[in-house]
Amino acid sequence: MPSSRYATKPPCPNCGAVDKPFIGLFCRDCYMKDHPSLVKVPSKLELEKCKRCGKLRVNGVWREWDDLVVNKWVHDKVNAKSMNDVHTQVYLTPHPKEEKEFRVKIVVSGEVEHSRVEFVLHSTLFIRSNICNDDMLITSDYYEGIVQIRMSEKTPEKIRKVQDEIVSTLNPLQKLDSKAVVVNWVGQEFGMDAWIVSKKAAKAAAVAISRLHHGTMSVSGKLIGLDVHTSKTKNRLTFLVRIP
């Protein structure tokens, strides 16, 4: 008559254990020795962070830091293809001594060989400093829009007022367009020019000044090159605003 000890769970055929968690017919330890890649994550993970604006580069796209997005990115690095009904939880903890490091804890649960199992994985997320595409343009004084302000009567006070109005127009736009920035102010005999990285933002500034001062606006374009990524032509737009 077989021993009642094995009535509900036969011993692991490899090591004879009966008091360990099992995966299928084998104890978990023996099963994992034969399946070391059942669930894994790289020991080192890396994301780029713009040193000027703080955006992260996730899957090739620069975007604001978002815990959900970062957690999803880490989640996608987990390899658990041999498991069914997989659930993954990601926990990020800032390193107490290294500002650009995060300790990563990943809890993965799923079904293997009709057994429900859970694994706790560990990794380190390194944040590497870089500069995003938009800020690269800003720091290189690149601009696609010019707002030319021409006044019937130019005074220092009037110049400062219009400059403040342009900046006030651009500031709210920066949430969606980080290129809504003036990279240079150029004084002119009858006014000034504002060089703006984004031509869309330049148009918004020109329209705002024209309306605020009941002026007139005209626009002209100039070919400045070819986008190496899209092969599309790049134009610089000049918005001429005449105000009283």
From TrEMBL:
GO cellular component annotations of the record: cytoplasm
**InterPro entries cross-referenced by the UniProt entry:** Nmd3, Nmd3_N
Q: What Pfam families does the annotation carry?
A: NMD3
Which top-rank group of organisms is this from? Archaea
Q: Where is the Nmd3 N-terminal domain?
A: 12-243
| Any one GO molecular function term | ribosomal large subunit binding
Coiled coil region boundaries: none
Q: What is this protein called?
A: Nmd3 N-terminal domain-containing protein
Q: Which organism is it from?
A: Candidatus Iainarchaeum sp
